[in-house]
TrEMBL record:
<feature type="transmembrane region" description="Helical">
    <location>
        <begin position="191"/>
        <end position="212"/>
    </location>
</feature>
<feature type="transmembrane region" description="Helical">
    <location>
        <begin position="159"/>
        <end position="179"/>
    </location>
</feature>
<feature type="transmembrane region" description="Helical">
    <location>
        <begin position="73"/>
        <end position="93"/>
    </location>
</feature>
<protein>
    <submittedName>
        <fullName>Uncharacterized protein</fullName>
    </submittedName>
</protein>
<keyword id="KW-1133">Transmembrane helix</keyword>
<keyword id="KW-0472">Membrane</keyword>
<feature type="transmembrane region" description="Helical">
    <location>
        <begin position="125"/>
        <end position="147"/>
    </location>
</feature>
<feature type="transmembrane region" description="Helical">
    <location>
        <begin position="40"/>
        <end position="61"/>
    </location>
</feature>
<keyword id="KW-0175">Coiled coil</keyword>
<keyword id="KW-0812">Transmembrane</keyword>
<feature type="transmembrane region" description="Helical">
    <location>
        <begin position="12"/>
        <end position="34"/>
    </location>
</feature>
<feature type="coiled-coil region">
    <location>
        <begin position="218"/>
        <end position="249"/>
    </location>
</feature>
């Protein structure tokens, strides 16, 4: 019980953080449109942190689930969520240069670092790793969320399977394009697969929650109707008992009169 309360408080805290950060992003965008340029690093950092907070909030919420698979996926999602945010912040704030790992301002080698070409390669690899971890975070969060749905309907179960499969294939195709040496050619060759899997994934993400709400509404309506029938049955039974009791009371004087005679 105590652990559940702590997770609930943490989830509320992450929700407040996400709303605040998205509000700051919107405000900074409005200020940039009205007054002038805003430091894109601050804006990007705020946006990335808000997205990471949303992922973390979903992962924390599913830690209360009884299924071990969902808990494992939630923990994995929280870990990789922190990793992609760390990589994104390193790239946004150019921390590779600040930490002395590389210096892109000079093209010649310097002691303890890399030359300009190697710095570019290192940043490219870090960018690909960050995008890869972000895709893994999104996929694990989606799988954990859809597996936690109480899909008793066969149609909803099929949609859950379709969405998870489409999202997994979409992620695999995206990662293959990302890590190919000639990514543009691979993208051109596989754009149809990306389109198909993307449409199926979006379809499942949109339709499944709608059907879940419809199922919940139907169950609620059925529960209300069952309660109404139960109440009517109880009223009828009470009326019948009252009539029987009245008949018994009316029969008692006649029995006593016959006994006196």
């Amino acid at each position: 019980m105590k652990q559940a309360n702590q997770l609930s408080r943490l989830r509320q805290f992450l929700l407040y953080i996400s709303i605040s950060l998205f509000s700051v992003c919107a405000l900074m965008g409005i200020m940039a449109a009205l007054s002038g340029p805003v430091d894109w690093r601050i804006l990007t950092t705020t946006l990335f942190t808000a997205v990471a907070s949303l992922f973390a909030m979903g992962g924390v919420a599913r830690l209360e689930d009884d299924q071990r698979l969902i808990k494992t996926l939630s923990v994995m999602s929280l870990i990789v969520n922190a990793l992609w945010l760390l990589g994104a912040l390193i790239l946004v704030w150019d921390l590779l240069s600040s930490l002395g790992i590389c210096n892109t301002n000079i093209s010649s080698e310097f002691p303890g670092g890399y030359d300009y070409m190697l710095c570019g390669q290192l940043e490219e690899i870090l960018t690909k790793l960050t995008v890869t971890v972000f895709i893994i975070t999104s996929l694990t969060a989606l799988i954990a969320k859809f597996l936690s749905l109480n899909a008793k309907n066969s149609i909803i179960s099929g949609l859950v399977t379709l969405t998870i499969s489409s999202a997994s294939l979409l992620s695999l195709v995206g990662l293959s394009i990302l890590w190919q040496k000639h990514g543009g050619d691979v993208l051109t060759a596989n754009w149809q697969l990306l389109t198909i899997f993307g449409i199926l994934t979006v379809f499942g993400l949109v339709v499944t929650p709608v059907l879940m709400r419809a199922q919940a509404y139907k169950q609620k309506a059925q529960a209300v109707s069952d309660e109404e029938r139960r109440r009517l049955r109880q009223e009828i039974e009470q009326e019948v008992r009252a009539e029987l009791a009245a008949e018994q009371q009316s029969d008692k004087p006649e029995d006593s009169k016959d006994g006196a005679e």
